[in-house]
């Protein structure tokens, strides 16, 4: 690496930068809020999934220090770790233009500061990397021009966490990339591939077990950011298809899922629910009665279980339904404590979720 000159910085704001004071203060507040939200959500993981908690800790550590370089025309945001050192939140000011400062960004490490050049406008992350024989344990660096509209939004903690949690829950080989943008693209790509695979499966699968196996491996399609819990035996008579627990909800919200065949008839010609639909509904009611009578038992099996859970029936198709038939299903969902989704509903909701990730 070519020897670089460190630009002059100060802990006092120069008069030339005071015009941007409001934006700088907003970033400071957003950054505090960002990590507060991250830690609040992470606190739920330990009880649910120790492995997920460990993986998330590697991306969103608990002991992060923050350093902001407020330059002449923009800001650099550093998030970093110094092990065995107290966390810090520092702001330094420089009259150097942002694009020039990016050629030699001072990075704090356990062995002192060193300078690295960084591209402007991206969000880069480094985990256990080595630069010129200096080990970087964990570093996230991003830069924004003051005039950039994204500056006032910076990053949404829940969106960031949402993306990574879903990536890990739905891809056992998930690895963190160099940039958050790269990670996001890779995660969305995996989701789209699963959606396409599920759509193809629905076209040919007539065996409930085939679809159930796929959904067991890919709970994202039923409920984003949820962890699947294997079949639960309820007494001697009933076994759930599977149970989901929403990882990002406040508290532990469970959903008991009953999966029916994709060719299950839903409505008769008179727009009455079919006997097969009513059988699935009765299955849910049987579960509910059993759970209410055996709360102590189920609370010992499912951590932080609260009665009643959510109930979900999945079955049949609605792509060829008329609007009148769809209205009956909507009315059913409005008036009942049980949610019913066709496989087409499932596809549509999953597609909308992926689109929301792309839009954020």
From TrEMBL:
<feature type="domain" description="Shedu protein SduA C-terminal">
    <location>
        <begin position="207"/>
        <end position="347"/>
    </location>
</feature>
<dbReference type="Pfam" id="PF14082">
    <property type="entry name" value="SduA_C"/>
</dbReference>
<protein>
    <submittedName>
        <fullName>DUF4263 domain-containing protein</fullName>
    </submittedName>
</protein>
<dbReference type="InterPro" id="IPR025359">
    <property type="entry name" value="SduA_C"/>
</dbReference>
């Amino acid at each position: 690496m070519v020897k670089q000159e460190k630009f002059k910085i100060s802990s006092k704001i120069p008069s030339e930068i005071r015009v941007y004071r409001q934006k700088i203060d907003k970033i400071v507040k957003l950054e505090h809020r960002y990590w507060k939200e991250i830690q609040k959500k992470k606190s739920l993981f330990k009880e649910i999934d120790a492995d997920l908690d460990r993986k998330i800790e590697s991306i969103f550590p608990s002991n992060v220090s923050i350093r902001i370089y407020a330059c002449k025309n923009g800001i650099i945001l550093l998030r970093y770790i110094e092990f065995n050192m107290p966390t810090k939140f520092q702001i330094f000011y420089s009259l150097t233009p942002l694009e020039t400062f990016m050629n030699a960004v001072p990075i704090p490490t356990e062995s002192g500061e060193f300078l690295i050049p960084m591209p402007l406008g991206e969000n880069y992350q480094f985990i256990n990397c080595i630069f010129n024989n200096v080990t970087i344990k964990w570093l996230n660096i991003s830069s924004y021009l003051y005039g950039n509209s994204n500056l006032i939004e910076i990053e949404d903690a829940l969106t960031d966490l949402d993306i990574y949690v879903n990536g890990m829950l739905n891809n056992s080989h998930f690895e963190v990339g160099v940039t958050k943008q790269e990670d996001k693209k890779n995660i969305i790509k995996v989701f789209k591939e699963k959606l396409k695979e599920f759509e193809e499966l629905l076209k040919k699968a007539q065996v409930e077990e085939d679809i159930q196996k796929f959904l067991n491996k890919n709970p994202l399609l039923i409920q984003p950011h949820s962890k699947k819990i294997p079949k639960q035996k309820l007494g001697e008579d009933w076994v759930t298809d599977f149970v989901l627990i929403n990882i990002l909800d406040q508290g532990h919200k469970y959903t008991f899922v009953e999966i029916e065949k994709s060719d299950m008839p839903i409505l008769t010609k008179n727009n009455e629910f079919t006997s097969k639909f009513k059988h699935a509904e009765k299955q849910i009611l049987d579960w509910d009665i059993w759970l209410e009578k055996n709360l102590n038992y189920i609370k010992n099996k499912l951590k932080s279980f609260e009665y009643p859970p959510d109930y979900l029936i999945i079955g049949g198709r609605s792509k060829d339904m008329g609007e009148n038939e769809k209205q009956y299903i909507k009315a059913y969902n409005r008036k009942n404590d049980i949610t019913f989704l066709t496989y087409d509903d499932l596809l549509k909701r999953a597609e909308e979720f992926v689109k929301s990730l792309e839009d954020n």
